Amino acid sequence: MKKLKNIAVVAVYALVATVGLSSFTNTDGYGIGDQVKDVKLKNVDGKMVSMADYKDAKGFIVIFTCNTCPYAVASEDRIIALDQEFKGQGYPVIAINPNDPAVQPDDTFELMQQKAKDKGFTFPYLYDESSTVYAQFGAKKTPHVYLLQKEGGAMVVKYIGAIDDSVRDASGVTKTYLADAVDALIAGKEIPVKETRAIGCSVKV
Fold first, then answer.
1. Share of the chain above pLDDT 90, in %
2. Nearest to 181 by CA among 69, 59, 81, 78
């Protein structure tokens, strides 16, 4: 009888351990350290763009964003500034709109083109027309950031989450998570914060 009780206790601990591990394991999209598949999507200039096109890139700042979400709109100037700061150091921005215009009518490709022109985007603004790339990454919000670094022939996820700690007003920023992560990669140092919570509008599909 005592032996049976011991077996039962072991089984319970095994179940608890499994549940505990599953709560911390990313099973929906990429996690830190995962290798990323290349993407090929239509840019607002009508040309197809992939990461493979950037032969000299050391990595990428991939940001899922859109025309309409107030959080995304509030981040546009910061995204432009990030591209201007880091593109020349090997980490350009690639912005991707995951929203389905059938669900969010102001996220059409034509309005993406107008947005990029009006704001003077210095980076590709790609249309995830098939709604597969955002799912591949596991993006849930706009904006949602994935910082990638080239290691050998692979692109590896190094940071996931928010641009910084101020979702609306740039003047309220006190922690620049993304910029700090890129700076760390450039310096060959450990990234201080590898994951944060992306705060924004849900992806509309």
1. 82
2. 59
The whole-number average pLDDT for the span 146-175 is 93
CA distance 143 to 201: 8
In single-letter form, the type of residue at position 144 comes to H
CA dihedral defined by 86, 40, 33, 138, rounded to 10 degrees?
A: 110
Cα(102)–Cα(81) distance, rounded to whole angstroms?
31
User: Do the beta carbons of residue 156 and residue 149 sit within 8 Å?
Assistant: yes
Quick: pLDDT tens for 27-51: 589 999 999 999 999 999 999 999 9
Q: In CATH, what is the architecture of 29-202?
A: 3-Layer(aba) Sandwich (3.40)
What are the tokens at 76? 């546009």
pLDDT the model gives residue 7: 39
Tokens standing for residue 150: 């080239």
DSSP 76-142: HHHHHHHHHHHGGGT--EEEEE---TTTSGGG-HHHHHHHHHHHT-SS-EEE-TTS-HHHHHT--EE
Q: pLDDT-based confidence at 171, cuts 50/70/90?
A: confident
What is the distance between the alpha carbons of residues 117 and 121, in angstroms, rounded to a whole number? 7
Neighbouring CB atoms inside 10 A of 128's CB total: 23
Length of the chain: 205
**Distance between CA atoms of residues 137 and 104, nearest Å:** 21
Q: What are phi and psi of 63, to 5 degrees?
A: -125, 120
